[in-house]
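Note to self: keep these together.
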Amino acid sequence: MDIVACLPCLQATVPRTTLRQCRCIAMALLGMTGRVTMLGLSRWAGPGGSYRTVQRFVATLIPWATLLWVFFRHHISRSEDVYLLVGDAVIVTKAGKSTHGLARFFASLYGKPVPGLAFFTFALVSTQQRRSFPLRVEPVVRSDAEKAASQAQAASKQAQALGTPRRPGRPKGSKHKTNADGTSTPELVRITGGLAALLPLIAGVVSLTYVGLDGHFGNHNALQMARQQHLHLISKLRCEAARYFPYTGPYAGRGPHRKYGDKVDYDAIPLPSLKATTVEGQVKTCISQMQLLHKAFPQPLHVVIIVQTNLRTQARAHVVLFSSDLTLAYAPLIDSYGLRFHIEIV
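Structure:
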Protein backbone atom coordinates (compact mmCIF):
# COMPACT_ATOMS: atom_id res chain seq x y z
CA MET A 1 0.00 0.00 0.00
CA ASP A 2 3.01 2.34 -0.21
CA ILE A 3 1.68 3.65 -3.52
CA VAL A 4 -1.09 5.52 -1.66
CA ALA A 5 1.54 7.63 0.10
CA CYS A 6 2.98 8.62 -3.30
CA LEU A 7 -0.25 10.08 -4.68
CA PRO A 8 -0.04 13.59 -3.08
CA CYS A 9 2.36 14.66 -5.87
CA LEU A 10 -0.69 14.67 -8.19
CA GLN A 11 -2.55 17.37 -6.25
CA ALA A 12 -1.53 20.09 -8.69
CA THR A 13 -2.84 18.08 -11.65
CA VAL A 14 -6.30 16.85 -10.59
CA PRO A 15 -8.94 18.13 -8.13
CA ARG A 16 -8.81 16.94 -4.54
CA THR A 17 -12.07 15.00 -4.91
CA THR A 18 -10.76 13.06 -7.88
CA LEU A 19 -7.53 12.31 -6.01
CA ARG A 20 -9.50 10.98 -3.03
CA GLN A 21 -11.53 8.75 -5.33
CA CYS A 22 -8.33 7.55 -7.00
CA ARG A 23 -6.90 6.63 -3.60
CA CYS A 24 -9.89 4.43 -2.77
CA ILE A 25 -9.88 2.74 -6.17
CA ALA A 26 -6.11 2.18 -6.05
CA MET A 27 -6.41 0.37 -2.71
CA ALA A 28 -9.21 -1.77 -4.17
CA LEU A 29 -7.12 -2.62 -7.25
CA LEU A 30 -4.20 -3.70 -5.08
CA GLY A 31 -6.34 -5.92 -2.89
CA MET A 32 -8.98 -7.42 -5.16
CA THR A 33 -8.81 -10.68 -7.08
CA GLY A 34 -10.45 -11.74 -10.31
CA ARG A 35 -11.51 -9.55 -13.20
CA VAL A 36 -11.62 -5.81 -12.55
CA THR A 37 -15.13 -4.38 -12.88
CA MET A 38 -16.80 -1.30 -11.43
CA LEU A 39 -18.96 -3.50 -9.22
CA GLY A 40 -15.92 -5.41 -8.01
CA LEU A 41 -14.07 -2.18 -7.25
CA SER A 42 -16.99 -0.85 -5.20
CA ARG A 43 -17.07 -4.05 -3.13
CA TRP A 44 -13.35 -3.91 -2.36
CA ALA A 45 -12.96 -0.13 -1.97
CA GLY A 46 -14.52 0.07 1.51
CA PRO A 47 -15.91 3.30 3.00
CA GLY A 48 -15.97 6.18 0.52
CA GLY A 49 -15.78 3.91 -2.51
CA SER A 50 -19.38 3.18 -3.40
CA TYR A 51 -20.53 2.09 -6.84
CA ARG A 52 -21.69 5.62 -7.57
CA THR A 53 -18.25 6.95 -6.60
CA VAL A 54 -16.59 4.55 -9.02
CA GLN A 55 -19.02 5.68 -11.73
CA ARG A 56 -18.18 9.35 -11.12
CA PHE A 57 -14.46 8.59 -11.26
CA VAL A 58 -14.78 6.70 -14.54
CA ALA A 59 -16.86 9.51 -16.04
CA THR A 60 -14.32 12.18 -15.03
CA LEU A 61 -12.03 13.51 -17.75
CA ILE A 62 -8.51 12.91 -16.38
CA PRO A 63 -5.20 13.76 -18.15
CA TRP A 64 -3.72 10.33 -17.57
CA ALA A 65 -0.58 10.96 -19.62
CA THR A 66 0.23 14.00 -17.47
CA LEU A 67 -0.48 12.07 -14.26
CA LEU A 68 1.78 9.19 -15.26
CA TRP A 69 4.56 11.60 -16.19
CA VAL A 70 4.27 13.61 -12.95
CA PHE A 71 4.38 10.39 -10.91
CA PHE A 72 7.39 9.14 -12.87
CA ARG A 73 9.24 12.45 -12.53
CA HIS A 74 8.70 12.71 -8.75
CA HIS A 75 9.28 9.12 -7.64
CA ILE A 76 11.08 7.14 -10.35
CA SER A 77 13.21 9.32 -12.62
CA ARG A 78 16.97 9.28 -12.06
CA SER A 79 19.26 11.78 -13.70
CA GLU A 80 22.10 9.25 -14.02
CA ASP A 81 19.94 6.59 -15.68
CA VAL A 82 19.52 6.01 -19.42
CA TYR A 83 16.03 5.37 -20.74
CA LEU A 84 14.73 3.70 -23.87
CA LEU A 85 11.30 4.53 -25.29
CA VAL A 86 9.34 1.42 -26.27
CA GLY A 87 5.88 0.89 -27.67
CA ASP A 88 3.59 -2.10 -27.94
CA ALA A 89 -0.08 -3.05 -28.07
CA VAL A 90 -1.94 -5.27 -25.61
CA ILE A 91 -5.16 -7.15 -26.36
CA VAL A 92 -7.90 -7.71 -23.77
CA THR A 93 -10.58 -10.19 -24.80
CA LYS A 94 -14.10 -8.81 -24.48
CA ALA A 95 -17.50 -10.20 -25.38
CA GLY A 96 -20.52 -8.19 -26.44
CA LYS A 97 -21.20 -5.71 -29.22
CA SER A 98 -21.66 -2.29 -27.59
CA THR A 99 -18.27 -1.60 -25.97
CA HIS A 100 -16.49 1.40 -27.50
CA GLY A 101 -13.50 0.29 -29.58
CA LEU A 102 -14.56 -3.36 -29.68
CA ALA A 103 -13.12 -5.13 -32.74
CA ARG A 104 -11.11 -8.17 -33.77
CA PHE A 105 -7.39 -7.89 -33.06
CA PHE A 106 -4.59 -10.40 -33.55
CA ALA A 107 -3.47 -11.79 -30.19
CA SER A 108 -0.11 -13.57 -30.13
CA LEU A 109 -1.15 -15.64 -27.09
CA TYR A 110 -4.02 -17.16 -29.08
CA GLY A 111 -2.28 -17.07 -32.45
CA LYS A 112 -5.35 -15.67 -34.20
CA PRO A 113 -7.60 -12.59 -34.25
CA VAL A 114 -9.93 -12.46 -31.25
CA PRO A 115 -12.76 -10.07 -30.32
CA GLY A 116 -11.65 -7.61 -27.69
CA LEU A 117 -10.11 -4.24 -26.91
CA ALA A 118 -6.62 -3.10 -27.84
CA PHE A 119 -4.47 -0.53 -26.03
CA PHE A 120 -1.25 0.91 -27.42
CA THR A 121 1.29 1.85 -24.76
CA PHE A 122 4.41 3.98 -24.80
CA ALA A 123 6.72 3.35 -21.87
CA LEU A 124 10.19 4.31 -20.69
CA VAL A 125 12.48 1.38 -19.91
CA SER A 126 15.37 1.92 -17.53
CA THR A 127 18.62 0.34 -18.75
CA GLN A 128 19.88 0.15 -15.15
CA GLN A 129 16.77 -0.94 -13.26
CA ARG A 130 15.62 -3.16 -16.17
CA ARG A 131 12.02 -2.09 -15.61
CA SER A 132 9.38 -0.36 -17.73
CA PHE A 133 7.27 2.60 -16.69
CA PRO A 134 4.18 3.28 -18.85
CA LEU A 135 3.62 6.93 -19.68
CA ARG A 136 0.89 6.90 -22.31
CA VAL A 137 -1.85 4.29 -22.75
CA GLU A 138 -4.43 4.87 -25.46
CA PRO A 139 -7.28 2.65 -26.66
CA VAL A 140 -7.00 1.53 -30.26
CA VAL A 141 -10.13 2.68 -32.09
CA ARG A 142 -9.78 1.80 -35.74
CA SER A 143 -10.97 4.32 -38.27
CA ASP A 144 -12.83 3.35 -41.45
CA ALA A 145 -9.63 3.84 -43.45
CA GLU A 146 -7.68 1.55 -41.13
CA LYS A 147 -10.38 -1.13 -41.30
CA ALA A 148 -10.41 -0.93 -45.11
CA ALA A 149 -6.61 -1.24 -45.26
CA SER A 150 -6.70 -4.25 -42.92
CA GLN A 151 -9.37 -5.96 -45.00
CA ALA A 152 -7.46 -5.30 -48.22
CA GLN A 153 -4.30 -6.78 -46.72
CA ALA A 154 -6.18 -9.86 -45.52
CA ALA A 155 -7.75 -10.32 -48.95
CA SER A 156 -4.33 -10.03 -50.59
CA LYS A 157 -2.86 -12.69 -48.31
CA GLN A 158 -5.80 -14.97 -48.96
CA ALA A 159 -5.41 -14.56 -52.71
CA GLN A 160 -1.72 -15.43 -52.44
CA ALA A 161 -2.51 -18.49 -50.33
CA LEU A 162 -5.04 -19.73 -52.88
CA GLY A 163 -2.52 -19.24 -55.64
CA THR A 164 -4.50 -16.64 -57.58
CA PRO A 165 -2.24 -15.62 -60.47
CA ARG A 166 -1.24 -11.98 -60.67
CA ARG A 167 -1.24 -10.28 -64.05
CA PRO A 168 2.32 -9.71 -65.27
CA GLY A 169 3.71 -6.22 -65.62
CA ARG A 170 3.04 -2.99 -63.88
CA PRO A 171 -0.58 -2.29 -62.78
CA LYS A 172 -2.38 0.11 -65.09
CA GLY A 173 -2.36 3.70 -63.89
CA SER A 174 0.40 3.22 -61.30
CA LYS A 175 3.10 5.83 -61.01
CA HIS A 176 6.69 5.69 -59.86
CA LYS A 177 6.92 6.31 -56.12
CA THR A 178 9.92 7.06 -53.97
CA ASN A 179 10.38 5.72 -50.45
CA ALA A 180 12.33 8.76 -49.30
CA ASP A 181 9.51 10.13 -47.15
CA GLY A 182 7.57 6.95 -46.47
CA THR A 183 3.84 6.41 -46.49
CA SER A 184 1.89 7.08 -43.32
CA THR A 185 -0.60 4.28 -42.91
CA PRO A 186 -3.73 4.93 -40.79
CA GLU A 187 -2.18 2.88 -37.99
CA LEU A 188 1.04 4.91 -38.02
CA VAL A 189 -0.91 8.18 -38.13
CA ARG A 190 -2.63 7.18 -34.89
CA ILE A 191 0.63 6.11 -33.24
CA THR A 192 2.47 9.22 -34.42
CA GLY A 193 -0.14 11.40 -32.72
CA GLY A 194 0.51 9.74 -29.36
CA LEU A 195 4.27 9.90 -29.83
CA ALA A 196 4.21 13.57 -30.85
CA ALA A 197 2.14 14.40 -27.75
CA LEU A 198 4.44 12.47 -25.40
CA LEU A 199 7.85 13.75 -26.48
CA PRO A 200 7.25 17.47 -25.66
CA LEU A 201 5.98 16.43 -22.22
CA ILE A 202 9.23 14.73 -21.23
CA ALA A 203 11.60 17.04 -23.13
CA GLY A 204 14.29 18.57 -20.96
CA VAL A 205 14.02 15.89 -18.25
CA VAL A 206 14.71 12.62 -20.08
CA SER A 207 16.96 12.52 -23.12
CA LEU A 208 15.84 9.93 -25.65
CA THR A 209 17.74 8.54 -28.63
CA TYR A 210 16.01 5.28 -29.52
CA VAL A 211 12.48 3.93 -29.79
CA GLY A 212 12.01 0.18 -29.71
CA LEU A 213 9.11 -1.47 -31.54
CA ASP A 214 8.34 -5.08 -32.35
CA GLY A 215 8.67 -6.78 -35.73
CA HIS A 216 5.26 -5.53 -36.85
CA PHE A 217 6.91 -2.12 -37.24
CA GLY A 218 10.06 -3.41 -38.91
CA ASN A 219 9.36 -1.48 -42.10
CA HIS A 220 10.34 1.73 -43.85
CA ASN A 221 7.20 3.65 -42.86
CA ALA A 222 7.80 3.09 -39.14
CA LEU A 223 11.46 4.03 -39.55
CA GLN A 224 10.51 7.33 -41.16
CA MET A 225 8.00 7.97 -38.36
CA ALA A 226 10.80 7.60 -35.81
CA ARG A 227 13.23 9.76 -37.76
CA GLN A 228 10.63 12.53 -38.11
CA GLN A 229 10.51 12.62 -34.32
CA HIS A 230 14.36 12.76 -34.20
CA LEU A 231 14.61 9.21 -32.84
CA HIS A 232 16.38 6.11 -34.13
CA LEU A 233 14.31 2.96 -34.59
CA ILE A 234 15.29 -0.40 -33.11
CA SER A 235 13.18 -3.26 -34.41
CA LYS A 236 13.24 -6.67 -36.08
CA LEU A 237 13.07 -7.60 -39.77
CA ARG A 238 11.21 -10.55 -41.18
CA CYS A 239 13.48 -13.58 -41.32
CA GLU A 240 12.67 -14.20 -45.01
CA ALA A 241 13.10 -10.59 -46.13
CA ALA A 242 15.71 -10.13 -48.86
CA ARG A 243 18.78 -8.15 -47.78
CA TYR A 244 21.78 -7.29 -49.92
CA PHE A 245 25.37 -6.28 -49.48
CA PRO A 246 26.32 -2.92 -51.01
CA TYR A 247 27.82 -3.39 -54.44
CA THR A 248 31.58 -2.75 -54.49
CA GLY A 249 32.44 -4.00 -57.96
CA PRO A 250 33.51 -1.99 -61.01
CA TYR A 251 31.17 0.26 -62.97
CA ALA A 252 29.65 -1.43 -66.01
CA GLY A 253 30.33 1.62 -68.17
CA ARG A 254 26.75 2.47 -69.02
CA GLY A 255 23.48 3.07 -67.22
CA PRO A 256 23.08 3.89 -63.53
CA HIS A 257 25.62 2.71 -60.99
CA ARG A 258 24.76 -0.63 -59.48
CA LYS A 259 23.54 -0.35 -55.89
CA TYR A 260 22.79 -3.88 -54.69
CA GLY A 261 25.41 -6.60 -54.47
CA ASP A 262 25.03 -10.23 -53.47
CA LYS A 263 22.06 -11.38 -51.45
CA VAL A 264 22.76 -12.33 -47.84
CA ASP A 265 23.10 -16.06 -47.27
CA TYR A 266 22.59 -16.89 -43.60
CA ASP A 267 24.42 -20.17 -44.02
CA ALA A 268 27.53 -18.42 -45.35
CA ILE A 269 27.91 -15.07 -43.58
CA PRO A 270 31.35 -13.50 -44.21
CA LEU A 271 33.80 -14.08 -41.37
CA PRO A 272 34.78 -10.38 -41.04
CA SER A 273 31.21 -9.66 -39.99
CA LEU A 274 31.28 -12.23 -37.16
CA LYS A 275 31.48 -10.48 -33.77
CA ALA A 276 30.82 -13.15 -31.15
CA THR A 277 30.37 -16.91 -30.84
CA THR A 278 29.07 -18.73 -27.77
CA VAL A 279 28.15 -22.36 -27.02
CA GLU A 280 25.64 -23.28 -24.33
CA GLY A 281 24.92 -26.98 -24.10
CA GLN A 282 24.03 -28.17 -27.59
CA VAL A 283 23.27 -24.69 -28.96
CA LYS A 284 25.86 -22.59 -30.77
CA THR A 285 25.09 -18.88 -31.19
CA CYS A 286 26.86 -16.69 -33.73
CA ILE A 287 26.33 -12.91 -33.80
CA SER A 288 27.21 -10.93 -36.91
CA GLN A 289 27.05 -7.20 -37.50
CA MET A 290 27.04 -5.39 -40.85
CA GLN A 291 25.47 -2.64 -42.90
CA LEU A 292 23.04 -4.00 -45.45
CA LEU A 293 20.58 -2.72 -48.03
CA HIS A 294 16.91 -3.49 -48.30
CA LYS A 295 14.93 -2.64 -51.41
CA ALA A 296 12.07 -1.25 -49.30
CA PHE A 297 14.45 1.14 -47.45
CA PRO A 298 16.22 3.93 -49.33
CA GLN A 299 18.98 4.18 -46.70
CA PRO A 300 21.43 1.53 -45.40
CA LEU A 301 20.46 -0.37 -42.27
CA HIS A 302 22.60 -1.35 -39.31
CA VAL A 303 21.82 -5.08 -39.08
CA VAL A 304 22.65 -7.65 -36.42
CA ILE A 305 22.07 -11.29 -37.36
CA ILE A 306 21.81 -13.89 -34.59
CA VAL A 307 22.16 -17.46 -35.88
CA GLN A 308 21.62 -20.41 -33.55
CA THR A 309 22.64 -23.94 -34.49
CA ASN A 310 21.77 -27.15 -32.71
CA LEU A 311 25.07 -29.04 -32.71
CA ARG A 312 23.34 -32.39 -32.36
CA THR A 313 20.72 -32.07 -35.12
CA GLN A 314 22.33 -29.22 -37.12
CA ALA A 315 19.00 -27.39 -37.14
CA ARG A 316 19.43 -23.64 -37.67
CA ALA A 317 17.37 -20.58 -36.86
CA HIS A 318 18.11 -16.89 -37.16
CA VAL A 319 16.80 -13.52 -35.99
CA VAL A 320 17.53 -10.24 -37.76
CA LEU A 321 17.56 -7.05 -35.69
CA PHE A 322 18.18 -3.63 -37.18
CA SER A 323 18.52 0.02 -36.34
CA SER A 324 18.65 3.26 -38.29
CA ASP A 325 21.67 4.31 -36.21
CA LEU A 326 24.66 3.14 -38.25
CA THR A 327 27.06 3.72 -35.34
CA LEU A 328 25.28 1.54 -32.77
CA ALA A 329 27.30 -1.50 -31.67
CA TYR A 330 25.79 -4.97 -31.78
CA ALA A 331 25.70 -5.53 -28.00
CA PRO A 332 23.65 -2.39 -27.14
CA LEU A 333 21.33 -3.09 -30.05
CA ILE A 334 20.58 -6.62 -28.84
CA ASP A 335 20.23 -5.42 -25.25
CA SER A 336 17.89 -2.58 -26.25
CA TYR A 337 15.61 -4.87 -28.23
CA GLY A 338 15.57 -7.30 -25.30
CA LEU A 339 14.58 -4.47 -22.95
CA ARG A 340 11.50 -3.92 -25.10
CA PHE A 341 9.95 -7.04 -23.62
CA HIS A 342 9.87 -5.43 -20.17
CA ILE A 343 6.83 -3.50 -21.31
CA GLU A 344 4.96 -6.80 -20.91
CA ILE A 345 5.83 -6.84 -17.19
CA VAL A 346 4.36 -3.79 -15.46
